[in-house]
Amino acid sequence: MLQNRFLRLFVGLAAVVLAHGVCAGEAAPAGKPPNVLVLLSDDQRFDTIGALGNPEVQTPNLDRLAARGYVFRNNFVVGSTQPAVCLPSRAMLQSGRSLWRVAGNLADAPTWGETMRREGYTSFGAGKWHNGVESYARSFSQGGPVFFGGMCDHLSVPAFDFDPGGKYPVKNRRVFTKFSSELFADAAVDFLRHYRAAEPFFLYVAFTAPHDPRMAPEEYARLYDPARITLPRNFMPQHPFDNGELKIRDELLAPFPRTPDIVREHIAAYYAMITHLDAQIGRILAALEETGHADDTVVVFSSDNGLAVGQHGLLGKQNLYEHSVRMPLVFAGPKIPKGESPALVYLYDLFPTVCELAGLPAPRDIDGRSLVPLWRAEQKLVRDHVLLAYRDVQRAIRESRWKLIRYRVGGVTTTQLFDLDHDPWELDNRADDPALSSERNRLELLLDRTRREFGDPAEF
Fold first, then answer.
1. Residue 289 C-beta-side C-alpha neighbours within 13 Å
2. DSSP E strands: which ranges in 253-378?
3. Residues 193, 286: contact at Cβ < 8 Å?
4. Region of residue 123 (phi > 0: left; psi between -120 and 50: alpha; otherwise: beta)
5. What's the average model confidence in pLDDT over 292-315?
6. Quick one: which of 4, 11, 224, 273 could link to 268 by a disulfide (CB 3.0–4.6 Å)?
7. Alpha-carbon distance 141 to 136, whole Å?
8. Distance, CA of 304 to CA of 321 (rounded, Å)
9. Sign of CA dihedral 357, 119, 329, 66
10. How far apart are alpha carbons 49 and 185 in whole angstroms?
11. Cβ(407)–Cβ(431) below 8 Å
């Protein structure tokens, strides 16, 4: 229990003080660890928060969170071994392990919620849980409604009330008709308003928005006139070559070739979903204030992956362009300064980061790295490149400036090389530029080496 852990810490510290004294300037640990509130959206691209540079999307609550918190501009998901990118993404988040060490299966991995719970936190989980009943049951001591699936109609959510016994037979599932974002926000607000325990809490709220079907309430849909939406600079009627996944469900949500009007309609609906989600996040943050927890709670906001929504001729997330592998990431709360970092981080770094903030030991067998040294200015980077992957058809290596993507589809290999400093929209493929042949060779070697380090099993 948490009390026992702090008793052991106090006794041990007292022994050290008696034996050696306390060095000047060193303070003994004191007080309760912070509460933790994790807000996870679904399919939200890195550039869909107003305060982070998008003047067209309305996100006043996330804007305020970003304004007082620490923002990571380059937060990535490794990718996926299947079309449902959110499944392995959320498994990596919960386990702190990289793609081929978890791949959606949390059976042998201590989860984030389980770790917090074991260390004395009250753990509450509401919303989407795409990684099985067993792992949810051991992760949370309270919770619900919980949706064990990938996507659903937002006004018809097949979910379960929390079962303390961890049993979720299909016969106990019921359909909730409140909009999904409101449903899960209600659960979080209710938890906060009734929480009276002495122990800190770990509140995990996983939304299913802005994942399609994009069906925001009318008052939010009216905020976005498709005719006034700016077409992305990298809009294309179709992808220039076969990337191995052009006919997946996500890509069939609009006809081929894509037209400017169709893409504007999709973006407008996407933004409307995000603004509605932002309003529900605002309700949760307001409840933190009302209940006196705003000053002792670490708030983390991110998403499981991005989404193309018309960029590069694509609609979905089954690709390795920036729009689909980068997500927003904001930390705010006690001892977290206002600021931002361009460091390359992974979504699965959140687990060990929060453990450090809470003074808890993270599981030893994880790949994530704490990001705390970045905002303490103890480090500028936690890694100098990230590996990106989609099934056995796409691989990429991404540094701060250069990005190389390699495709193998039907025996044909295609390579792209982008200079992100000068081409952030990934439009100018420099792979065949003779002046950059040494850069390409270096990145290809780095890609192959990093794939081996990650245990990538694909014949690529």
1. 7
2. 297-303, 326-327, 329-332, 339-346
3. no
4. beta
5. 98
6. 224
7. 10
8. 15
9. negative
10. 19
11. no
C-alpha–C-alpha distance, residues 51 and 182, integer Å: 23
Query: What would the 3-class secondary structure string for 80-98 be?
Result: ECCCCCHHHHHHHHHHCCC
Residue 7 pLDDT? 38
**Token pair in block for residue 348:** 């699965």
Contact present, 148 and 136 (Cβ < 8 Å) = yes
pLDDT band at 217 (very low <50, low <70, confident <90, very high): very high
201 is written with which tokens?
A: 């809490």
Instruction: Give the burial class of 3: count Cβ atoms within 10 A of its Cβ; 0-12 exposed, 13-18 middle, 19 or more buried.
Output: exposed
* 374-395 tens-digit pLDDT: 999 999 999 999 999 999 999 9
For residue 117, the surrounding DSSP H or E stretch is helix 112-118
Name the residue type at position 30: A
Residue 211 near residue 42 (C-beta atoms within 8 A): yes
Contact 274, 423 (CB under 8 A): no
Q: How many CB atoms lie within 10 A of CB 123?
A: 24
Residue 330 φ/ψ, nearest 5 degrees: -130, 135
* Token pair recorded at residue 95: 């386990």
C-alpha–C-alpha distance, residues 358 and 336, integer Å: 12
Q: Examine residue 33 and say whether the peptide bond preceding it is cis (omega within 30 degrees of 0).
A: no
